[in-house]
Design goal:
By secondary structure, the chain is an alpha/beta fold. It is built from twelve helices and seven strands.
Length: 296
């Protein structure tokens, strides 16, 4: 299933929200992707220098600015696949630079969500409950950027760009073939909190309506006035994989859990089913989102 065990027999891997295993957390290392990006950057620099090109010269040929080439070579920016393909061709690397696309794709993700992203890519059914902001798979790019800007301690601009790009990349799940079944339950407050400002929120709500209109997607809203609520323990995610197994994911203030133990995954699946039964129906929910959009 791609989910390792943090402790023998628990079927759970625990991370701090900074992405490190609790057993050996180094607060100075947010994740391990920096070393991958630096290695990629060094290779590009070596091929560029061997070709007798400056950073500005390479950028001009492949359609990127000198600052972008410099940031990639220093391991501070994640190169897009198009960047790697173009650099490979121009520098005559014979596929050696382009071959690093897979490593770069994995390094886009912070360590704490890397396994989750793999599971999402393997899922045939995914259900998620979000209680304080839009679920990452439902976010617009500007909404995601506003969320990452709120993070304290603050991210540097390069890390912020990388995390936003990684979150957007996970949304490829919506266009997969065959399409997985995707269901979401969002708290009413997530429709009203003006993350990034009113204009950003309006576009986020419009995006939510478009996404909820897809045939393989159902979005439900949990009204604030509900007296019975099975989701008071916090946000969660349930993923059913092609081999018939079920995995779970939950997140608290400082720790996230990826769960593969069948009994623990079953608890999350039970809770999520009850949450869905307590929320508005998908049809009622879309009408509710339209109402909030009109008020925003």
């Amino acid at each position: 299933m791609g989910v390792g065990n943090g402790k023998a027999g628990t079927g759970r891997r625990d991370y701090t929200t900074d992405g490190a295993d609790r057993s050996g957390w180094d607060p100075g290392l947010e994740d391990d992707s920096g070393s991958v990006m630096k290695a990629v950057g060094r290779q590009i620099k070596l091929w560029r220098e061997a070709a007798g090109l400056t950073q500005a010269g390479l950028g001009a040929v492949i359609g990127y600015g000198e600052d972008m080439v410099s940031s990639v070579e220093r391991g501070r920016r994640v190169p897009q696949p198009e960047f790697l393909d173009a650099a490979d061709e121009v520098l005559g690397a014979g596929g050696k630079i382009a071959a690093m696309k897979r490593d770069v794709a994995e390094a886009r993700y912070p360590k704490k969500v890397r396994d989750l992203a793999r599971l999402e890519a393997e899922s045939v059914e995914l259900g998620a409950y979000g209680n304080h902001n839009m679920h990452g798979l439902l976010q617009t790019e500007e909404y995601a950027r506003a969320l990452f800007r709120m993070r304290r301690p603050a991210y540097c601009e390069d890390d912020l760009d990388r995390y936003v790009a990684a979150r957007m990349a996970r949304q490829e799940i919506f266009s997969r073939t065959p399409a997985p079944t995707l269901t979401f339950v969002q708290e009413e407050v997530t429709l009203r909190r003006p993350v990034g400002g009113r204009a950003v929120l309006r576009r986020q709500l419009e995006h939510l309506l478009r996404t909820g209109g897809l045939r393989h997607v159902e979005i439900q809203i949990m009204p604030t006035d509900r007296e019975d609520h099975a989701g008071m323990g916090g946000q969660l995610q349930v993923l059913k994989l092609g081999d018939g197994t079920t995995a779970g994911y939950s997140e608290a203030q400082l720790i996230t859990h990826l769960i593969s133990d069948p009994k623990e995954a079953q608890v999350l699946e039970l809770r999520y089913g009850i949450i869905r039964s307590q929320a508005l129906s998908p049809r009622e929910s879309l009408a509710f989102i339209e109402k909030v959009l009109g008020e925003t």
